[in-house]
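chain and backbone:
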Amino acid sequence: MSTNTSTIAQLWSKADRSAVRAFFLSIAALSVALILALYSGAAAELGHIFLASTSALAALAVAGWVAATLVPVLAKRTPLRWIGYKMEYRLTRQGWVYLAGIILVALAALNTGNNLLFLILSTLVAAILMSGILSSITLSGVELRLELPEHIFATRSVRTVIELRNEKLTLPSFSMRVEAATKKGGPAPAMLETPVYFPYLPKREHVRQVVPMTFPRRGLYRQEAFRIVTRFPFGFLQKARRIDLKTEALVYPSVEPTEQLIEILPGLQGSLESVSKGYGQDLYALRDYVMTDSARHVHWKASARFGKLMVREFTRDDDCRVLLVLDPHMHAASPKNAGSSSARQPAAQSAAERFERAVTLCASLAWHFSESSAVLQFRTAGIETTLAPAGDNIFAILRHLALAQALPPDPQYKLITELAAAPELFKIIITSQPHGSIPAALWRTSYVIFLDDLL
């Protein structure tokens, strides 16, 4: 008894009290109108025409007052959105077998006239009708929310949260699964390729499930809608409700160390140290001694060999300033790779693959410099980030790389020639241009990665 009382109290606390009062007032007024209508009929039978007419007019007046004043108030407060749900129906294999059994029982009942068969037939029909009603109740009032991580990398599994919320006040929902909605004959869904099952959803509660999700490639993934599907309670009928939930996921390129990155890192580190000097630990060069030099930097063996004081200069390891450049203009592969397997592929596909390798390598290098606390700037055609600590602008760089597209060849090499205007930065250039196209002024302060040299 106390449980029922508490449930009623909770419902009353959350109810729209003005709507409840209007509802009960309309019920009372319509009851009075019904009594007056019945009295009008009885008076007409007894021959009291005046009383019958008066009672009928009074009943009409009361009903008209309810329709003009109370019905609009109730209509404004009635949540009709559940009635407008578009349901998709499909009879399952079990449903077809059950329907065949109903037809057989119906034929037997009609041929024999047996009352017991008619009773069984009505029970079977009632079961399938109840299946449709209960499945509609299960899907009504259920809302979906999808929560994706802020940063997603290609080929790396991420944890996605799928939440179902039951907004019904009194009834729970059972046996539902969430899946991506696609058009007939359309492409495969970009997200949630595996359905997620929810066995039970309590009333006025929400249930969350953490689902691992992997995106194979970089880029922008879109999902326009999802479906909530149920076969509750008997599995005869599959009913689905479409939920328009436009979801987007920006997937960064993979930053995992690749064989190409491991292969070029030693040469890249050597080139970086050869153009930087300062108070580090690695020897940069020997030069003549000047009065402002410290005596602890004197290289005594070299001084004895040259007959004059020589001091050591060291590479600067406390201020690594790097300009990372991605050249998106895809030039044709060099003739030396014409016999390779990739060169035998269609030209468009080969260029796309080479560009994807360039983007992945660029993302791996940017991630490498962010982990080494370098000062990094990124530049490509039409896009340039500010020079800042790599940890601050790494995700801005990855966002650009996630959406980067290959461009037609540039015969003027405009992007490459403009790099000579930043001699103070060490430049890492990833390009598909042929050897010999890089200006001589860039070689001293640059490390050029030619795509033709990458396997």
